[in-house]
TrEMBL record:
It comes from the Bacteria. This is DUF1499 domain-containing protein. PROSITE patterns: PROKAR_LIPOPROTEIN. It holds the Pfam family DUF1499. It comes from Oryzomonas sagensis.
Amino acid sequence: MGHILRADIIMGILSGLLAACTGERPTNLGVRDGRLTACPPSPNCVLSQSGDERHRIAPLSFTGEPEAAFARLKQLLSRRADATIIEERPGYLRAELRTTLFTDDAEFLLDRERSSIQVRSASRLGYSDLGKNRRRMEEIREAFRVMPTPAF
């Protein structure tokens, strides 16, 4: 009986630690004046609309119909085991991207005029992500590039 109780306590502690690593959903994300939220000073964020080189990443480029490209991105994110779409509005997607211990927040904004999708991805917690947000956005870029556009 004592062993079972200790196992329950240990599992409770581990669950609490894992929950603490995911952090709370940010309340400051979204689109303001056609722009995604700026990155914080820490290096654990990338943003295609960033004015500084440390955080800048290229947007996703596409040819053809903007809505079809955005539907392709949504389909791609829906197929990723590490992604959950949290918010969807016309031309805007917000997703949670998980690693073993952490949750990152990603945003995608359709930029019809530039035939691109602006991107932002940031860690909820910590200072450095060892480049994980940048690598993941590049993985998404490559998958988006080769994925066929869904038929409407």
